[in-house]
Amino acid sequence: MQPRTDLVALVRAIVLASVGALAILAVTSPASASDESSGAPGKIVDSSVARERGTYLRPFATIGTGMGLRFNNPYRLATPLGKTAESLSTTAPYFSLGGGVAFGDPTGWQHGPVLRWDFALGGVPQHVLVPSWGAFRRGAVLGGWTRFGLPILLSPDANMGVELAAGMAWYVRAGVGVTAELLGDLVWGAATPDNKRPAYPVLSGQLGALIEWEKLP
Asked: Which residues neighbour 198 within 8 Å (Cβ) at sequence distance 6 or greater?
């Protein structure tokens, strides 16, 4: 029963983080009723006009580093947090490079593809490619997103899983932000004597930065 309890806790943490991020973004939306009525400079009053003029694009690149907690681990790792082989363990630190593009309403919700490459900084060499699709929203200072992806483990053994993430950015300049992200992964692993199709939940935290550009209509 312990693996099932760990998985429920992992999913609950990611869902709560996603809901919290989206709630904050809704409150800090850059467009307000007063902006629309006053026609403030630099604001797009009617997003339908923007759509008629052309397509809004926001390409971006990300860089980050993080670490995770591995649940339901059948092998004792170098950094176990418990006394048994199935105890909670920490993963090796990893480095992440990514990029994507968001399109949609310049003053509201946007969506688009994201591609990331993660690789371990220690221990067994491990490379993961993560194609995903995200929903984004940005205010003047804060921005955030939630995304769903399919991590593909390239090495040491080919495998795949599912990923749900929620993150936020604090913009120190118009196109430069400091980021924090919470990620929940469920990765299928090699069969063991006790489990022919094991699944390993991993909860990770990541800090980094992003650079973005805007293509206005």
From this structure: 72, 74, 188, 189, 190, 191, 192
Using CB atoms within 10 A of its CB, is residue 58 exposed (0-12), middle (13-18) or buried (19+)?
Answer: buried
Residue 56 CA: distances (Å) to CA of 44, 106, 108, 140, 142: 12, 7, 12, 17, 19
What is the C-alpha separation between 103 and 54, in angstroms, rounded? 11
Q: What is the pLDDT at residue 107? A: 83
- Segments making up each domain of the chain, as ranges: 2-31+52-103+111-212
Provide the 10 A C-beta neighbour count for residue 81: 11
Distance CA 190, CA 54 (A): 49
CATH tag, 2-31+52-103+111-212: 2.40.160.20
In terms of DSSP H, where are the helices of the chain?
A: 2-27, 33-38, 47-53
What pTM was estimated for this model as a whole?
Answer: 0.70
Least confident residue range of 20-24, 90-94, 149-153: 20-24
Going by C-beta distance under 8 Å and a sequence separation of 6 or more, which residues neighbour residue 172? 178
Helix (H, G, I), strand (E, B) or coil at 84: coil
Least confident of 43-52, 70-79, 166-175: 43-52
| Neighbouring C-alpha atoms within 13 Å toward the C-beta of 9 | 13
Cα–Cα–Cα angle for 46, 50, 55, rounded to 5 degrees: 150
Backbone angles phi, psi at 34, to 5 degrees: -65, -35
Q: Mean pLDDT, to the nearest integer, of 53-79?
A: 80
